[in-house]
């Protein structure tokens, strides 16, 4: 009995949406912090806009024709059904996908996503302000951790597992690349010369957006250095949200699928190319090539992997 | 019937406990205060965790309800069950023979035992099925027979559900919950297992695979999708018997054969346990606007390349108007007297019967011939004068569209409510599988009307369920 192509697709998107909900919560947290500490006139709104750019929802927000202040942006990122990446939209899509493949996931996984959705849908957006917002963002991350825990702890290591894992790591790679690209200019080597308080703060927020502000110290035993930050999030294999970690993991899972089904597929090569972008290179090479150009290409290649996977395994 | 107290399955009229309930009565006596309250709230948590919900049509998205579960099991003695199951076995064999005849030679119509008009002009009759030879000549493979009890030895069949009866997942999960809640109660007596149902379902489906199917037949469950109210059950059954849960777009027909779209390409499908109605199965044969079905499915079925379970067109045998003829049907095909009785039913097209019905409508139950789920139905004693008048008008306008039955005093079972343990009315739906043999799961689903005095057991109208125990000798 082979898995339906639709089931594979639902599994892929289920974990992708859970990962996205978590990432959106993290991005919003960063945007929120930046806007709180901005002393410049209009600075808060700029920070929020660049955060929404990183999440690629700035155009959807513009269509709302609302000023970008903390409340409108928080509502848009958390609760707005018109925002396809809002936490609301992500959790709902994750649950719908999970419900469609109820037989292909464990009851613990179903329980995690189902109760996350049920709890979230009880929340009244009007009640979520300030400290409450921070608490809710924490809750979103925890819900994602709980789902991941259920996934890792209970599901069979077969093709379904590989589709789930490919989904989360393709989403994660995309997210890390976007966070870097949002502030790539403060990561360029020459900005080290500046090293103003403002830069330091931006660096710390980039790390925070990738849940890396503590682990950075463990790896570098040093103050924030822009190349190190870029190095950490792009090339360090021990950093679980770095591009190289994600790319290797994606390739591994796609290889697992090839082995499971006993045949090579187009997506194997595409995943190999993505990994090759970050394997055996250095930050110097990347900077010489252009950080922004590199990130743009990585995002496109990563997207190609998702498309190739869908084609190879008959998503529809 | 209305004046005497209904038959209680636990207590005799003098208050003494009936034999099958002795162990339960003793167990209940031994329970400390609040034990049942605790069990009741544990049960609710268990069902939520198991994910047993049903969507309520028309209610807000995401609202899924848990059907109330009563912690006191209903108990049926071994010899009571033996008689019941013999009657059920006889009935489902006769109904399948009837279906084969109706879609072939129509001997029963020629013999004048069932009026020709009643069958051929019936919207449940499916002319596309004429001459088609299903595997093992079985049409209705999965059946839920609705039975009510009115006395120690009096059982009546209320309805034969031959289309896509639902609820079997509740039967299985009720048992699961009961074993978690009161394991010690199971030690005191031997209860016949129901857990084999998924295995038996699989065997039944395998046994009716088309002759051409090679090796282990590929079985799928076809669901209308996640928004269907019984979606939980569809996914539960697919999971339990190791079948693929499919929606229409997951399947396609090519060269008269059915395939599913898998990660490695098309894979042949042999048996489809479909949980979508006849009308929606195949837009090329039935409703052209159906998005749920599979274009070309019916021609693949006709060509004998796939088995549909249940077969299309089985509705002609559980039609409410045909129901009254079931005792004749049993005699005609099996040459035996029907072991199970029908509820006496008045035919409103007969002037004398109709006049009597119109005069006594306040005591009677009126059912629309094609209604189901408690819709299009009126229970005289609990309905208003205005309702009586309305149904009188309806019957006069279209006498053939209604059947009328006396209001039965359904038996009661002890049921736990806030006020304590009280008698509540119940019915019973045993589940029957027909393939290479007839397999009847001991017991079935007991539905209980939780409101005092209510006779309506439907979950949409305040009904709950109970675990149903058939004792082994």
In brief, what are we looking at here?
The complex is a heterodimer of chains A (316) and B (473). Chain A is mostly helical and 316 residues long.
Overview of this protein structure:
The complex is a heterodimer of chains A (316) and B (473). Chain A has 17 helices and no strands. Chain A has 316 residues and is mostly helical. Chain A folds into 2 domains: 1-155, no CATH class; 156-316, no CATH class. Chain A is globular. The two termini of chain A are 19 Å apart. The model of chain A has no long low-confidence stretch (mean pLDDT 92). Chain B is 31% helix and 23% strand. Chain B has 15 helices and 23 strands. In chain B, strands 3-23-22-19-18 form a 5-stranded mixed sheet. Chain B has a 5-stranded mixed sheet with strand order 13-5-4-20-21. A 4-stranded parallel sheet of chain B has the order 7-6-11-12, with helices on one face. Chain B is globular and about 65 Å long. Chains A and B meet through helix 1, helix 5 and helix 6 of A and helix 9, strand 7 and strand 9 of B.
Strand content of chain A: under 5%
Largest sheet of chain B: 5 strands, mixed
How many beta strands in the DSSP annotation of chain B?
A: 23
Domain module tally of chain A: 2
